[in-house]
Specification:
single chain, 257 residues, Methane Monooxygenase Hydroxylase, Chain G, domain 1, Severin, six-stranded mixed β-sheet, 6 strands
């Protein structure tokens, strides 16, 4: 009996040792995978810099093509390493998903504008038009025209506003909505970012930078929303968001909005 217990104990110790070794191996693979993810991100950043350099120095096309080819090959190599490491684990980490998305966007996107400019005069004019109490204009939409953001439309009918956003577009909207109750009517302003469901991964990633650029002009609003589906472009949802931002409204319930 004692021999059997001793044998089982030794088997248990052996299994624990094997489990410890496997755990150490997994940790080492994860560390290596994380380093490859970091290197992938650095290379993508280098690629972005090269795109900017191409716009600024058109005469250096031959050297640029060689550099791009080297970067592409290195990205493909790292992607294979990351993918192999992911398949050996039980579940992909967020970093691995990010790398796969970046690789997919990098491979499929043929035209990516890396810098964004503003048509400042038309954007500022539309912004001030929406804010003016004496103007019937209640909304303005800003879209990408090549490498520039321009004012593409403005108006007063919300139904027309909803038609301005396509699934393959990125855009911004600025709205003036009348809020409050019969005792206290007031105008409130909302800034909207639109990223359609068919927008590429890289253009989605650029949106935060491009939004910061246009917000240099469009700076006064009570609520900011990011929308990605047509069903979210809803005036009642907009007003609910503005109400939550500004507190409750008290009155008889009869409103003229």
């Amino acid at each position: 009996m004692a021999d059997a217990v001793d044998k089982n104990y030794r088997n248990l110790e052996s299994n624990i040792d094997k489990l410890t070794l496997n755990q150490c191996s997994i940790i080492k693979k994860f560390d290596a995978l994380s380093k490859n993810v970091d290197e992938m991100r650095k290379i993508l950043a280098q690629f972005s810099e090269k795109m900017v350099a191409l716009e600024e120095v058109a005469s250096d096309k031959r050297k640029f093509k060689v550099d791009i080819k080297v970067l592409r090959n290195r990205i493909d190599e790292l992607y294979d390493i990351v993918k192999e490491g992911k398949e050996e684990g039980s579940a992909p980490s967020d970093d691995v998903r990010d790398v796969e998305s970046c690789h997919s966007g990098f491979s499929c996107s043929s035209k990516v504008t890396m810098t964004t400019g503003l048509d400042r005069d038309t954007i500022r004019s539309a912004y001030e038009d929406v804010r003016s109490d004496g103007s019937p204009t209640e909304w303005a939409v800003f879209k990408f025209d090549g490498a520039r953001i321009i004012c593409s439309a403005r108006g007063s009918d919300f139904t027309e506003f909803r038609t301005q956003f396509s699934d393959d577009e990125r855009a911004f909207g600025y709205l003036r909505l009348q809020m409050g109750d019969e005792m206290s009517k007031r105008k409130k302003f909302m800034f909207m970012t639109w990223v359609g469901p068919s927008v590429s991964v890289i253009n989605r990633a650029k949106m935060s930078t491009d939004k910061a650029i246009i917000k240099d002009i469009i700076s006064n609003f009570a609520v900011e929303l990011q929308l990605e589906s047509q069903s979210e472009i809803d005036i009642d949802q907009f007003k609910d968001a503005l109400n939550r931002a500004g507190g409750a409204n008290y009155g008889t319930g009869i409103r003229d909005l």
